[in-house]
Design brief:
heterodimer, A: about 375 residues, mainly alpha, ABC transporter involved in vitamin B12 uptake, BtuC, B: Rossmann fold, Rossmann fold, 20 strands, disordered N terminus, cell membrane (chain B)
């Protein structure tokens, strides 16, 4: 079969898949009696049309980058880690314990400490399925799925029985100390200027104290951490011995064994790193946004990470781009629910279609494109 | 294609003496012209050889004849009638039978069930089976094709499985039989038996096309031989008017040294000493049953044998890939055979190189680039590190470029994925990596399997050069010619054991062939069968 040019493979295929997903979404909208154009404009406007829209989109994207990277790193070692959700919830537990029970002098130190705790807890939750795979051959897909349920049950128990403040009806931990709050986009110098609120006269809104007022957004400093993590994953996979061994093992296990690469080591290390990345997501939502540990804190981001990795072709850069796209779908979908009569569940439909077209039907788009390109080549030859 | 065609069915009264004629067959895959204007005419009742290097287009041509591919141009005449062959069913109806290199048999079916498979008649299987049983008895009788119809395929030897494939074709009334590399998996004795079968088929008026890369078989078995090179048919000659040297030259397009030039060995101290090496497979079946030998510096020990007699396990155990028991010492240092340290990395650090039998499964990572592959197993070497954390990809690339130049890898592009190189060039990447790492002992498995003649010559020279540089070499090959021409000592492996050592100067193919079949006492040819 003829080969696609690299640019077409990397850019055109996902783009066409997205357009197809959008078309089918439009058909669904027409069928439920809504205007697709209106829906699209509400989504774009809500997610990307304003600085605060971006503040939400990038907040979601941050979580998806971490979970997407988690899936990616395991995937390169030939392991399909479905357990991002549970690992992210355990990461949240680590963050909560670190923030609630350790005395931190400053939020920067707390950020480092909580990151370590999040990574450690996430990794620990991945360690058991990894060990079972490496030593017993229990399939990682099955065990990580089971561990998602165990994580959910464990958190219900811990939040309900142990961390719930006395007198609270809410299965959630106490609030973290206020001084541990991470800087959000609207609180950071320079960046905050994008989030200035304007009065109807076009002038900057001022508070009673005469200070400018900013739109509050959930996106926070963790976004930059996620970009650093993406770069780190890229370096690890393509510029270190460990990454080389992981990719070798993932591509061809027997050849890796021939080369003296230990299967046990690779499975363990890859899954620990994967779990750690998923766990790090908790810095964004638990420490950065909720500032306490809620039940079901990961809110499905662990699963979205699978789609993000799939769509991002398991490349850190692709993961970042795909995470922003899914952030857009999340925030745009919320805007739909808020501003139109379109049910918010449509967000799930659109996500499902995007996953279907970019993941499962990717091959269909690919063969059609290959055919188009081969036609062009023949024309040129003739 | 011609208008007046007859799909898969031949006119009964065709006045042609040719069973098959191909006229102007061309086939391109994208920019690659696999077949270019091929003309060939095979007289009925003859054996026609087709010979050529890997990628010369033999398989494509046969696939067109069997309906797997459609030719871009040209026509096929069966018994003088233009015929289109859109699929393999039409090929069968046209009387063409194909015996593939890799058998297409259902392993847990009986011989009879396999023969009927796809040719069942009616609803009840039993009528087909009893009909087949009778036909099978006749065929077996007629052509010396004795196979127990009720035997399960997986219990049969490879030679017998091949007979089942031939019977399958004959049961479908094949008049033209195509055999693709039929002797690759056979012992010399089994191969001789096959050629006797082919001779009797020919005597009955069947037409046989034999695809092979073994010149000896072409010389022995065929009436005519066609030589293919790079998609074109460069010559068709009467076999008796030709010589192996001439055919080799036609195949490669230049003079080829069929014999390896090598001086006498100059053995030094013992490098590798193996004692009572045993390997069990996952089903706890002993595949290696106590093997002992020594290899000295500057010496090639050749292990001959039919594939599947423990050679793979021997290489895997020595290479640290498979657990084993016994004792192995390398330059006096014991090598761990199980547990920590029994891995490829420790072996390489101890000075052992390994060119594995299956380069596409073990030796190379097919999706990796050539430069990534050229560090496989040596990726921990200090020269490939930039600092404690990072690998020096630039250094590996530069190193690969140098190796590609020395070993004449084509195309010399380090960033090309391994899967995009031809078999011979893939093997050169592996050979370059293992030889350039300068091992004290090199394990070599099937160094020239699926490698074209030009590259074989090159790889053989490299092996001898390594020996002359004072390295110890363990050579495992199913190609007797290769073992005979490269080895300084030969051991034959049968059923997980070494059947004794022979001197290549004094032994011959017949003696080795008997040892390969497990016969140690050559005066009683049946003695080994009980083993």
């Amino acid at each position: 079969m003829a080969k696609l040019p690299r640019w077409a493979d990397l850019a055109l295929v996902p783009l066409i898949s997205l357009v197809l997903a959008a078309l089918v979404s439009a058909i669904v909208l027409v069928l439920i009696g809504q205007s697709p154009m209106q829906a699209l404009s509400v989504m774009v406007d809500g997610a990307l049309g304003s600085a605060s829209g971006w503040g939400y989109t990038l907040y979601y994207a941050t979580s998806f980058i971490f979970t997407g990277l988690g899936v990616t790193i395991a995937f390169h070692a030939g392991l399909f880690n479905i357990g991002g959700e549970g690992q992210a919830q355990l990461g949240g537990l680590g963050v909560a314990l670190a923030c609630l029970f350790l005395p931190w002098p400053h939020w920067t130190v707390a950020l480092v400490g909580a990151s370590l705790a999040a990574a450690l807890f996430g990794a620990a939750w991945a360690a058991i399925p990894a060990w079972l795979q490496a030593k017993r051959g229990s399939h990682i897909v099955i065990t990580t799925i089971m561990f998602n349920y165990i994580a959910a049950a464990l958190l219900i128990y811990i939040l309900g029985e142990i961390l719930r403040p006395v007198g609270s009806m809410d299965p959630a931990s106490a609030r973290f100390p206020a001084e541990l709050g991470l800087p959000h986009f609207h609180e950071m110098p320079i960046l905050r200027d994008f989030f200035l609120k304007y009065g109807p006269d076009g002038a900057v809104k001022l508070s009673a104290q005469g200070l400018p007022v900013y739109s509050r957004v959930p996106a926070n400093i963790t976004f930059f951490l996620s970009l650093i993590a993406a770069f780190g994953v890229w370096v690890l996979l393509w510029h270190t011995r460990l990454g080389y061994e992981m990719r070798a093992f993932g591509k061809q296990e027997k050849a890796a064994r021939y080369a003296g690469i230990s299967a046990f080591k690779i499975i363990m290390v890859a899954m620990l790193l994967s779990g750690a990345l998923s766990g790090l997501m908790a810095i964004n939502n638990v420490m950065g946004q909720a500032e306490r540990l809620l039940q079901n804190s990961a809110e499905g981001a662990g699963f979205i990470g699978i789609a993000v990795a799939l769509m991002g072709r398991n490349h850190p850069l692709g993961v970042v781009l795909a995470a922003v796209l899914f952030g857009f779908l999340y925030q745009g979908g919320a805007a739909l629910g808020l501003n139109t009569s379109i049910p918010i569940e449509l967000r799930t439909v659109v996500q499902g279609l995007v996953i279907l077209f970019t993941g499962a039907l990717d091959y269909m788009v690919r063969i059609m494109l290959t055919w188009v390109f081969s036609l062009r080549q023949t024309e040129r030859a003739a | 294609m011609v208008e007046k065609t007859d799909v898969g069915r031949q006119a009964t009264a065709a006045p042609s003496s040719y069973a098959i004629e191909l006229k102007g067959i061309s086939k391109a895959f994208g920019p690659v012209q696999a077949n270019r204007d091929i003309n060939i005419a095979v007289p009925r009742g003859t054996i026609h050889g087709i010979i050529g290097e890997n990628g010369a287009g033999k398989s494509t041509l046969m696939s067109i004849l069997y309906g797997f591919y459609k030719a871009d141009a040209g026509e096929i005449l069966i018994n003088g009638t233009p015929t289109t062959i859109p699929d393999s069913q039409s090929a069968i109806r046209a009387g063409i039978g194909m015996v593939f290199q890799h058998f297409k048999l259902v392993q847990n079916f009986t011989v009879l069930e396999n023969i009927v498979l796809g040719a069942e008649e009616g609803f009840a299987l039993n009528t087909s089976l009893s009909k087949a049983r009778k036909a099978l008895a006749d065929l077996s009788h007629e052509y010396e094709l004795n196979v127990d119809p009720d035997a399960i395929i997986e219990d049969l030897s490879v030679g017998h499985q091949q007979r089942v494939e031939i019977l399958k074709a004959l049961y479908r009334q094949a008049e033209i039989l195509i055999l693709d590399e039929p002797t690759g998996v056979l012992t010399p004795a089994e191969a001789d038996h096959l050629f006797r079968i082919l001779a009797s088929l020919k005597a009955q008026g069947k037409t046989i096309i034999l695809i092979t890369h073994k010149l000896r078989e072409i010389m022995e078995a065929t009436d005519h031989v066609s030589v293919m090179r790079r998609g074109t048919m460069v010559a068709t000659v009467k076999t008796t008017d030709s010589s192996p040297e001439q055919l080799a030259e036609l195949m490669v397009g230049r003079k080829v040294l069929l014999d390896v030039a090598k001086g006498p060995a100059n053995p030094g101290p013992v490098v590798l000493s193996v004692e009572n090496l045993r390997v069990q497979d996952e089903q706890k079946v002993e595949r290696l049953k106590g093997v002992s030998f020594e290899i000295r510096a500057g010496e090639v020990l050749g292990i001959a044998g039919v594939a599947g007699n423990g050679q793979s396990e021997l290489l895997a155990a020595l290479g640290g890939i498979q657990k084993a028991t016994g004792s192995v010492t390398l330059k006096g240092q014991p090598l761990p055979l199980s547990g920590p340290g029994a891995d490829g990395r420790t072996r390489r650090e101890a000075g052992m190189g390994h060119i594995p039998e299956d380069r596409q499964l073990l030796g190379l990572i097919m999706d990796f680039t050539a430069w990534e592959n050229s560090a496989l197993g040596y990726h921990n070497a200090a020269k490939y590190q930039k600092n404690l954390l990072l690998m020096d990809n630039t250094a590996i690339r530069a190193d690969t470029e140098a190796k590609m130049a020395t070993f004449d890898v084509r195309p010399p592009i380090p960033s090309l994925a391994a899967k995009n190189f031809s078999g011979g060039n893939q093997q050169k990447i592996v050979v370059a990596r293992e030889i350039e790492s300068n091992p004290d002992i090199l394990l070599i498995g099937q160094p020239t399997r699926g490698v074209d003649i030009g590259a074989i010559e090159f790889i053989h020279k490299q092996i001898i050069a390594l020996r002359d540089a004072g390295k110890a070499i363990l050579l495992v090959s199913v190609e007797l010619d290769e073992i005979l021409s490269l080895s300084d000592r030969i051991a034959v492996m049968f059923d997980g054991q070494l059947m004794g050592f022979r001197d290549p100067e004094t032994t011959n193919e017949r003696e080795l062939g008997l040892l390969m079949a497990g016969v140690t006492d050559t005066s009683k040819p049946d003695a080994g069968k009980a083993a």
